[in-house]
UniProtKB/TrEMBL annotation, chains A, B:
Ranges where the 2Fe-2S ferredoxin-type domain occurs: 12-99
PANTHER family: ALDEHYDE OXIDASE 1-RELATED (PTHR11908:SF132), XANTHINE DEHYDROGENASE (PTHR11908)
UniProt entry keywords in alphabetical sequence: 2Fe-2S, FAD, Flavoprotein, Iron, Iron-sulfur, Metal-binding, Molybdenum, NAD, Oxidoreductase
Species this protein is from: Citrus sinensis
Cofactors, names only: Mo-molybdopterin; FAD; [2Fe-2S] cluster
Protein name: FAD-binding PCMH-type domain-containing protein
Top-rank lineage group of the source organism: Eukaryota
Pfam family, one: Fer2
Protein family: Belongs to the xanthine dehydrogenase family.
Gene3D superfamilies recorded: 3.10.20.30, 3.30.465.10, [2Fe-2S]-binding domain, Aldehyde oxidase/xanthine dehydrogenase, a/b hammerhead, Aldehyde oxidase/xanthine dehydrogenase, molybdopterin binding domain, CO dehydrogenase flavoprotein, C-terminal domain, Uridine Diphospho-n-acetylenolpyruvylglucosamine Reductase, domain 2
GO molecular function: 2 iron, 2 sulfur cluster binding; FAD binding; iron ion binding; oxidoreductase activity
Coiled-coil region list: none
Chain ranges of the FAD-binding PCMH-type domain: 236-423
InterPro entries registered for this protein in UniProt: 2Fe-2S-bd (IPR002888), 2Fe-2S-bd_dom_sf (IPR036884), 2Fe-2S_ferredoxin-like_sf (IPR036010), 2Fe-2S_ferredoxin-type (IPR001041), 2Fe2S_fd_BS (IPR006058), Ald_Oxase/Xan_DH_a/b (IPR000674), Ald_Oxase/Xan_DH_a/b_sf (IPR036856), Ald_Oxase/xanthine_DH-like (IPR016208)
Amino acid sequence: MGGQQQHGGTRHSVVFAVNGEKFEVSSVDPSTTLLEFLRYHTRFKSVKLGCGEGGCGACVVLLSKYNPELDQLEDFTISSCLTLLCSVNGCLITTSEGLGNSKTGFHPIHQRFAGFHASQCGFCTPGMCMSLFSALVDAEKTHRPEPPPGLSKLTISEAEKAIAGNLCRCTGYRPIADACKSFAADVDIEDLGINSFWAKGESKEVKISRLPPYKHNGELCRFPLFLKKENSSAMLLDVKGSWHSPISVQELRNVLESVEGSNQISSKLVAGNTGMGYYKEVEHYDKYIDIRYIPELSVIRRDQTGIEIGATVTISKAIEALKEETKEFHSEALMVFKKIAGHMEKIASRFIRNSASVGGNLVMAQRKHFPSDVATVLLGAGAMVNIMTGQKCEKLMLEEFLERPPLDSRSILLSVEIPCWDLTRNVTSETNSVLLFETYRAAPRPLGNALPHLNAAFLAEVSPCKTGDGIRVNNCRLAFGAFGTKHAIRARRVEEFLTGKVLNFGVLYEAIKLLRDSVVPEDGTSIPAYRSSLAVGFLYEFFGSLTEMKNGISRDWLCGYSNNVSLKDSHVQQNHKQFDESKVPTLLSSAEQVVQLSREYYPVGEPITKSGAALQASGEAIYVDDIPSPINCLYGAFIYSTKPLARIKGIEFKSESVPDVVTALLSYKDIPEGGQNIGSKTIFGSEPLFADELTRCAGQPVAFVVADSQKNADRAADVAVVDYEMGNLEPPILSVEEAVDRSSLFEVPSFLYPKPVGDISKGMNEADHRILAAEIKLGSQYYFYMETQTALAVPDEDNCLVVYSSIQCPESAHATIARCLGIPEHNVRVITRRVGGAFGGKAIKAMPVSISHM
Amino acid sequence: MGGQQQHGGTRHSVVFAVNGEKFEVSSVDPSTTLLEFLRYHTRFKSVKLGCGEGGCGACVVLLSKYNPELDQLEDFTISSCLTLLCSVNGCLITTSEGLGNSKTGFHPIHQRFAGFHASQCGFCTPGMCMSLFSALVDAEKTHRPEPPPGLSKLTISEAEKAIAGNLCRCTGYRPIADACKSFAADVDIEDLGINSFWAKGESKEVKISRLPPYKHNGELCRFPLFLKKENSSAMLLDVKGSWHSPISVQELRNVLESVEGSNQISSKLVAGNTGMGYYKEVEHYDKYIDIRYIPELSVIRRDQTGIEIGATVTISKAIEALKEETKEFHSEALMVFKKIAGHMEKIASRFIRNSASVGGNLVMAQRKHFPSDVATVLLGAGAMVNIMTGQKCEKLMLEEFLERPPLDSRSILLSVEIPCWDLTRNVTSETNSVLLFETYRAAPRPLGNALPHLNAAFLAEVSPCKTGDGIRVNNCRLAFGAFGTKHAIRARRVEEFLTGKVLNFGVLYEAIKLLRDSVVPEDGTSIPAYRSSLAVGFLYEFFGSLTEMKNGISRDWLCGYSNNVSLKDSHVQQNHKQFDESKVPTLLSSAEQVVQLSREYYPVGEPITKSGAALQASGEAIYVDDIPSPINCLYGAFIYSTKPLARIKGIEFKSESVPDVVTALLSYKDIPEGGQNIGSKTIFGSEPLFADELTRCAGQPVAFVVADSQKNADRAADVAVVDYEMGNLEPPILSVEEAVDRSSLFEVPSFLYPKPVGDISKGMNEADHRILAAEIKLGSQYYFYMETQTALAVPDEDNCLVVYSSIQCPESAHATIARCLGIPEHNVRVITRRVGGAFGGKAIKAMPVSISHM
């Protein structure tokens, strides 16, 4: 929120600070992300590129914004892989190196991550540290009592939630949670797992004293004076005509009209840019229009009719506003707002919600059928939207907005209005009626960046029958979304059917039958039956216990019921009345870690801190992609086959602007004389580096495009079009069954044949138990290492090469590279330093990556 | 020469080819040299930075220019360290990698340099190869008979001269000359030194057959088609308003006026830019005006009055024009022209003369007192200059031009006119008079880039006395220059004295006395007495043998004498009448290399080719500065003390534009905590890295300035001003004698004390001979390695460092770096790969360079 700043002029360069250090960038491709800038133009490489989608948290940094009017700092985490560089103008960025490092001393966060063995491959650790640090900063801002020495104001519950959305693939999270919880004022020190700080049997006080002490340090992310000055004379950013920050609706209109007038110019409205995590951007835009500085779009306004939330308000800010206790609203309205807020807290991760805007989410839902939670819960709550098209403004029900054709580029979503539900003021409501509101969501994970299989929001006005022997539905809104539908819908037929009915099993059964026809996933949606059944389950959960209620149902009981429902949301059913985050119980069940250490081979077996663990935490550990690239380094990206079995006729680029930056397009034809088209070598034989005339599977590398930057190489690979031909080819074999049918079998290497021991048939016959035949099918699984496959090849004298590779089998890469290039093995040196997760996935599949980088 | 091209428009990017590969540069600092571009923006790092003054030849490349009208290629060597990138627009550059390399196969030049052991440290070798290659290209253009198989059209004499100006500090040149001569059609194979091609005793034919065969290959430096197209639609270069190529005097005037109008804009006229080798450029210019495309300035015109040479004509082209045999001129005039040409061939090196302009040389002489040879010889020959100031043009005698105040920036030297000396047409001359003309030059080296201690040019009209008993000087011009004078002068008083005199020793003695008063080096000139004596010697050489001639001196004898004098110039006195470079005898005296190889330890002792020698020749060998710098690498330059003993009060930068690019200015105050101000460590103790409060000698490092590029760091160091204070300090000790006087002695380490053996006094007394005392003084000497001191430091994890250093003692650097930074030695890794010459100079003095790069 905060007042809009007065803008004093226009500035043409982006000015910001990283760990207190000033950076000024006057010439920048506006699509540059903060991550790209940090990794390629600063020494702060703690910021890791994991998924590039805001889904893993390896790139999390703390962003601090200064409000000169209030002289206040706002600090929150963001995904640097989605945040555009231009949007951090005037901000301070803190990375894990900024917390502490090997030169200035590590931060206790780093030390405790190390001591609790919470960093294995280490690739996720700096992001984890930043998420925890942000939680500590937030806790310090509360008015809670001073924590015991060495600890913080953080609660255990907050400590656990701090890293929600930060993925780790090595540790299983237990040690990370321990490291986080060790900062909590209310930590149960006995609950923490093995670590290198204390010995078994030491007292609680001694144990705490052995932790690297935490002391709130205002110096960290202290806002630099030069940036305060920047902000106090705040100027609008206008970078070489490619980044605009209009400060009024009129200015926005002017910019849009100027773009409209020219069909040469492509433009994009941006607030948090988090949508790019889902909709990978291949397109290049000429103009970016940052709409966060337009008052109408950043408003949060409460009045008796409800809450209006501007389109650019972040989901985090919306949650905060919706949670706010205020006398302005009736308790029923507050209940609805809080439930919406509670649901919104399950959307994506904290670091995404901190930049993602409510409006961006709704527009994606409307234009691109994004499986939005915001749309569903707001639809259930009867929200309205304000739309501007040119000079014209209109207010629509959200439902109508969603059903319209995709919003055109001239139309702007200004804000959303959530009505104030207050049955006492509703003249049409019966005086004894009660408002029920609940939201639902089923997703692969309860928290942390998982899209729902289905979501729902139900609002109902119910009252006890006048006869006192049942509950009547006076009115209801039943919204469902994200189940494989263009947009969130209301189950109108079910609503109509239920309206006026007294709830009983028969009624509910009929309703469910109707519902099955309303919630129908579109063709091609995965697990459709499960999704439909979720809708039924949620509806049953909402109405089920109100069914067949007979005697003595009063309004008071219903109100109690309504409160009770609200608590189902939190994972533990307790009877506290007031929401106090600091008192919410922990997410993790209790656990005890018992490790028996034999003293026989002492000191072997002693828990010691892994060498380099603190460096991993501070982000100073150097992974392949952190090795400074040589000047004029070229970058490559694979083009993969999309057809399992096809002839490759050629490769072209869709976009005309691409070939300029492309230095080479390598395919099997470019294997040097004397070399072989070999991409990996295993005990089962070798695999080709590139598909030759025929592709052998979908996902097989077809070519390797080389460009002046990784971004350009990736983009070129994205817009490459492979021309396939499938005439006269048999259909591809896509399952084991087909392979057996068509006798297409790999030969099993003889060393894998089991040696027969004894007479198997005889043994089987004599056995007490018989073998029963059964069939089990295992789906495929991703290795899912956090660090992507990476290699850096540096040519050296006399046709020698040094290849840095994140590989588990450098010795195989070594031989394979030499064979592929047709050079002696002694000309090749493969160096593996750190591997940011592997799980077998970097044993074989890292080889083609190393080879292609030659 | 060649006609002026028609210019079709303006082009805003520099387009050229390197080894056939296209480069297009649209945004460039116009002060960027070709060397900077090649080394920092291409992979062609064979081009080495040695002296940066055009004085060593390590950066020599072949430049090919296409003339679309004549469909002809001109190929010549240039110093890439002085050539501005913008001036190679439209040209093809060939580097040693372009001749051949480890991937495509080495060129026979590379192979023979390797086989003749002509590459030791290898730093000079690529430049050597290019100079030889250029000579081969020139020879192939002649109409000489086809050479024997495997050899070229080159002559031995040309082969030897090919590398004049390319310095080598390791080999002593013998093996290099052998490698060059091995290509000559007229090679005496027995004259070539040891090599790894043939065995002793093999026949001449077999030996030749064992040489890697040379075959003229038109493919090398074949002009690329795309560049031909560029040239045929030749466009003028105008790079972002900072590089202009006017094509007429009027356009030049316009540009100059626009510059004149603004005192904000600094500008510079450029032709070959070779002057920068002598006058290091600290200044940055806003505009460069390339005047090579203005017809009036690039003219070479002959008429009956003489030869007019445009100011931008290169010295090489001027030599060519002056040497041309033409019926147009009387033999006397031709003699004068050829002598001027012969003298000009001793100026700088071939690769400098190929770009240096006649006008640039004269303007430097006039404005900046450059010790010019051109000015002296033209003054002796009675040349005139054409000057343009605004709309006004005037013709001046060269003498008057030199005596004027420095040419202002509005005035342009257009051309120089050398008169046609033809006494037969001179009505005032006596009919039996003869013209004598001679030029002289004394320099540290006869050929190859050495400024003269003194030069002279004498022209005299003499005739036999009517009495027949002596020679009368009818007229004379005696020009002297470069002896420590503002500009070349005529010894007027001597001229006047001699005019009309019959030559005898008395007359000559008087003339010499007068000359001593005329040729007086300015205060501060080194070896002034030697310089004056040279003037006397040259005058005596010119007139001496004509003195005291008595009987029967005829005009014919004088003409013969005149011819004879002309031959003194060439180093061997033979009686050939016609100049034919291919028949000029070789420069090197005959030599025989006898190496007795013992077979006792066979194969030890066998001459084998050094591993990597061919890589050194092709320029693929990687020296420290060839290691690709990491992205965002910082570059440093030392600021040295100019005072031997002074207090340092502070350091500032003269130029206001500098501090922007300066990242840090490090001095002893920046030694990290726990570290020491230590720069080197020897058996005699350690030396500080930086001067602390007091400087200890002139040349001591005071600070290290760090910037975003080497150029900017060098520039910042150049404009840095150290504020010294010398109050209350004793005078510095500058000689051994002063040190002894003031008892300021270093302690001799005990291990250096000689152990007394026997009774020295007794032995001395009993000895047959007595020791006589004498004093000998040795001046200082430069180590003079070709590769400058270089180090590259790459920070690694956990405060570790990898330092690549061109050092002879990596083990000492290793320890010293650790002590300076206060880190454990195991955190430091020092890697020495190749050392481009050292001679002890990279034992100790490379250490501070390695350390400062931390």
